[in-house]
Amino acid sequence: MKTLLTLTFSTALLAITAQAQTVNFDDAKPSQTPVGWTATKTGKGEPKWTVEKDSTAPTKANVLKQSGEADYPIAFKDDTQLKDGFVEVKFKPLSGNEDQAGGVIWRLKDADNYYIARANAIEGNVRIYHFAKSRRTQFKSATLPVATGQWHTLRVNFIRNRFTVLFNGKELFVAEDDTHKDAGKVGVWTKADSVTLFDDFNYGAK
Q1: Which domains does the chain have, with CATH numbers?
Q2: Does residue 113 surpass a pLDDT of 50?
Q3: CB-count burial class (<10 Å; 0-12, 13-18, 19+) for 33
């Protein structure tokens, strides 16, 4: 039975990977929000999402940078609509006195309703939450180092109410939640005064 379950899960991941799409922001105009993305926030504040050149980018030459300050800055890809699949991004926390965070969002209905998995360099953890009517609720966490000034990879595989969170290629935990069941958009996320870079945004539908 264990072998059968493993094969079934592997087959599902292969199907997801086959439909993967990548955004590396290299065709976007610097100092602007990339075309086809909505840059906004949950809560209050003034986020600033811009494409910038960065010599350390995993895929040179551009990255997406959040350098404003808001409760929860978010940016999502307008033409996405995923129910089951995956979302992944490479991110680099640069600075922040309150937070140094980077995350991925999925099944986003609007700026107040979505799932989020994020890593925080100041707190030294990776957590998963749902936002419902702007209210954030955590339902799983793992404690581990998240280095400032280094590129990391954060990924979530989501199928029905089951979410597998991976950090730098290592599976951290599996969580379950039934808050958001419908298809929605995918994107990226930061918190408070985090200055964070993003590159190689990948996603795919099952």
Answers
A1: 2-22+37-43+70-205 (2.60.120.560)
A2: yes
A3: middle
